[in-house]
Queue: 2 jobs
Job 1
Amino acid sequence: MIAIIGNSDRKEIRTLRGSLLMLGYPAAAVTMSDRETLSSSLAVVSFDRSVSPFVDSERTVFADPAALASDEPGVASRETLRIKDRAEEVVEIKNGVRFDNFVSKCYAERNGVSVFLGERIPLTERELLVVRLLSVYPGRYLAARTIAAFCCSDPVSDGAARTTVYEINKKAKNLTGFPLIKTKPKEGYSFGG
């Protein structure tokens, strides 16, 4: 959902990505040449004031790398919140998505409470990230590696994403009899709410 252009080993990118994940926003570090991810991301964060040729310039959010790498108290937090707020604006204006009050035909999320087919479904932070990521791409199947890249804080295998989807569907089926996430072998996972 939010692509951060740059090397995932850089302190400022690790700080920003980790903070966005904690705030409930799927985010991944990508290279400037990753056309597929950049063109499909809802917001793109750039550190060098350049806009990727694969991205609508209105979806680009510029970040201050010095602020994110700062060890001074509060500096990185303020910059992260500024970027989050700007990314929220971009996602809402350009894509019509608001995560604090998301509603689809079978699923709703309000103030951190998830409801599927009228039943409250208790999702972990990672599960909520996966549902959020898939919900903004309805009808599109995402590979497990893409889900892992955007929703898992540590470098993990595709198996972590598969396990997370399994757990989401297990909870949904126990409550309603239906899965929340659709699966298609060799294509991946799609939002079913």
Job 2
Amino acid sequence: MNEDELREALHATAPATPETTGWAEAARRRSRRTRGMLAGGAVLVVGLVVALAVPNLRPGAVVAVPAAPGTSSAATSAPSGETVAGCAGYSAATGGDIPTDALALRLCPTGYAALQFTPLDALDVAGAHSVLAVLRQQPRLRSNAMCRADLGSAFLLVAEYSGREPVVMDLQLYGCEPVGTTTDRRNGAEEVLTAFRAALAEQRAQSPRSLVRSAPLCPPQAWEQRLSVMPVHLAEVTGGSLCSYESRTGGRLRERQLDTDAIGRITADLAANSATSEPISCPAASAGEPAFALALTTRWGDVLAIVGDGCPGSYGYQLDGEGLRWRPGAAVTELLAGLGR
């Protein structure tokens, strides 16, 4: 068989050109399903560990992965926990351009971010405009960008208006740190969150109002440390709860509200008997020994979580991004034991 005959034979046996109509949309549907399953699995994993992560710390490990197309947050169904007033009904980002203005700008929990305390108050017009300006200055997210293969916190940033639907934007502190709507996505979520914190702190400094977080403050387990998006300072603590458990590994939970005298004694002892947390060796807690945790609140409803750190009579907490260990003095140890009975 010569060369021309071979070419004709191959051409005759080749299959007809396939029909490609609808392939692109089908591929997109498969991609969305795959990302949904991966995100669901990620939430299950992160739900176990995210409570110990500081919300404003950047992950250390960096692995390059392609940026995903615009989607909603990693998970739209939050685990058990409170719904911040004003956040009800917001579950996923919307489309459209990133807005230039808003009457209010609110940060809402989503997915495993519900393990963090987001602010009860929203930014007013001036603060909303300043943060949206920072957002619009961020570079657009390229579809071929290489991102960290990590996991982290995710929030919804909600621009609210009068007489029109809100604009809901993702704000994800992992991967390429995307922030924005489903059709106008940018890098720089951490920069936007930093701007939000600064604007809200400035707004609060000019306002005498106070807010109360009505949902239960205690975590389901004594070792879970649910952190607050806004930094908390000991001088700002005005209330809180003592959480008592049958043991460190679980058991019945009791939440008892602390009065002004107890708050004063506890915060004074925290200031006097706290030090930078470093690895130490200590005896294991006795099986069945009661465990305690504290959830202290500011007048804005932000929460300082203080939990057992594995050593008997020792507690850990985060203050200004620093991990601290607290060993209560004898008087406050007795106070906690008495309140926990």
